[in-house]
Amino acid sequence: MAVRAVEWLDGAVPAVRLLDQTRLPDTEAHLEAADVETLIDAIRRLAVRGAPALGAVGALGVVVAMAQGAREGWDDARLHEEIGRLRAARPTAVNLAWAVDRMLPLVPQGHAAVLAEARRVVAEDEIANRRLSQLGADWLLERCPRRPLRVLTHCNTGSLATVAWGTALGVVRELHARGLLEIVHVDETRPLLQGSRLTAWELQADGIDHVVQVDSAAPGAILRGLVDAVVIGADRIAANGDTANKVGSVGLALACADAGVPFVVAAPWSTVDLATPDGAGIVIEERDAAEVVSWGGVATAPAGSRAFNPAFDVTPARLIDAVTTEHGVVEPKIRPDMRAVHQPA
Ligand code: MRU
C-alpha cells in the first residue's frame, strides 16, 4: 500500500503534510502544518499517530520550527522553547522525543543540515520496518507449526503509524507476501478505533483477509485456539523489555501466556529506550474522558460519568516471547535485556 502518513513539502514556507487519520476510513483528507502549533494540535488530536510516524513528525517538525522562527524573528531561547513543546506533545511514544533530540545538535548548522538529518530519520524507518518484519516472520514460522498462520493484532501499526510498511502489520504483510497468512483478527481498539478504522482500511486495500472483532473477544479467541500468534507494536520498550503499547495489549499477553500462544512485539530500535530500566518508569498518557463516555458527539454513558482513559498499558517482559527489531530478535521471557539482541546469522 503506497499511503504516506507523513510527507515533507519543500517550498518558500516549508510544511509537513499529514493524512488526517481522524477522518479515516470515510475521507482521505490531508492537512498541512507550517507552524509548531498546528503540528502539536495534529499530534494531540491523533491526526498523526503511531510511534514511528510521530518520530518522523518530530524530526521534520524541528525544521518547521526553524523556518517559522526565521519568518517570525524568534531568538534561540524561543526556538528551543517551541521545539521543547513539540517534543512533549505526547509523552509515551519515545520516538517523538528521540527524533527531536537527534536533530538538536544540528540546529546551529542551519536548515539544510537539519532537513538532511530529518530525511535520514524518515528513510531509516522504512528500512528498519521491512527488516524487523522479515525477522519477525522468520521467528514466528520457526515457532508456529500451522500453515498458513492466523494472527491477531491490536491498534494500528501499519503504513499509517510509520513512515511506510509498518511494524506488527509489517510482519503480517511479510507473512502475506510469503503466502503463509490465513487471516488477521483485528481488535477494534477502543476508544478511538484505530483497529477497525485504520488497520482494517489498510488490510482491505492490500487484499489481506481479516475480521474485525470487539476488543473483549480477543482473550476468548486466543484461549479457543483461533489464532496462532499475537503481534503488536510498541510505543516505548524499556531496557528490560517491558513494553508500553495501546491499552488492551497486556490482556492479550496474559491470554497468550495461559494458552501457550506466542506473543510478539514488533518495533524499530528507535522505540527502544535503554535509559528507562523498566516499565515503571514509562509515563502513560491519560486522555480526555469524552473519548470513553461518548462517540461522535453522542453520549454513551450517563451525563456526569467520570472516565479512566489511559491511552497505553505496559506489558511486563515476563509475558513477551519475542521483540523483533531491525537489529535482531530479543526473547524477554528467557532474558529480559534488550541489549541481548540476537543478530541473525
Ligand atoms: O494512540 P496511538 O494511536 O498513537 O497508539 C499507537 C499504538 O499504540 C501503536 O501500537 C504503536 O505506536 C506502534 S505503531 C507502529
List the helices and strands and how they pair.
Blueprint: E1 6-9, E2 15-19, E3 30-33, H1 36-45, H2 51-72, H3 76-87, H4 94-103, H5 111-143, E4 149-153, H6 168-177, E5 181-187, H7 194-206, E6 210-213, H8 218-223, E7 229-232, E8 236-238, E9 243-246, H9 249-259, E10 263-266, E11 272-273, H10 290-293, E12 294-295, E13 298-299, E14 312-315, E15 322-325, E16 328-330
Parallel strand pairs: 4-5, 4-7, 5-6, 7-10, 8-11, 10-15
Antiparallel strand pairs: 1-2, 2-3, 8-9, 9-14, 12-13, 15-16
The protein binds 5-S-methyl-1-O-phosphono-5-thio-D-ribulose.
Q: What is the number of strand segments?
A: 16
Read across the widest sheet, the strand sequence of neighbours is: 6-5-4-7-10-15-16
Distance between the termini: 30 Å
Q: Mean pLDDT across all residues, rounded?
A: 97
CATH superfamily of the largest domain, please?
Translation initiation factor eif-2b, domain 2
Task: Determine the strand fraction and express it as a percent band.
Answer: 15-25%
C-alpha-based Rg, rounded: 20 Å
CATH topology of the largest domain: Rossmann fold
Which word captures the global form? globular
**What is the helix fraction of residues, given as a range?**
25-40%
- Ligands present: 5-S-methyl-1-O-phosphono-5-thio-D-ribulose
Number of helical segments with 4 or more residues: 10
CATH architecture of the largest domain: 3-Layer(aba) Sandwich
CATH class of the largest domain: Alpha Beta
Task: Please indicate the count of domains.
Answer: 2
Main sheet summary: 7 strands, mixed
Indicate the structural class. alpha/beta
The SSE order reads EEEHHHHHEHEHEHEEEHEEHEEEEE
Show unreliable segments: none
EC number: 5.3.1.23
InterPro entries: IF-2B-related (IPR000649), IF-M1Pi (IPR005251), IF_2B-like_C (IPR042529), Initiation_fac_2B_a/b/d (IPR011559), M1Pi_N (IPR027363), NagB/RpiA_transferase-like (IPR037171)
Family: Belongs to the EIF-2B alpha/beta/delta subunits family. MtnA subfamily.
Active site: 235 (proton donor)
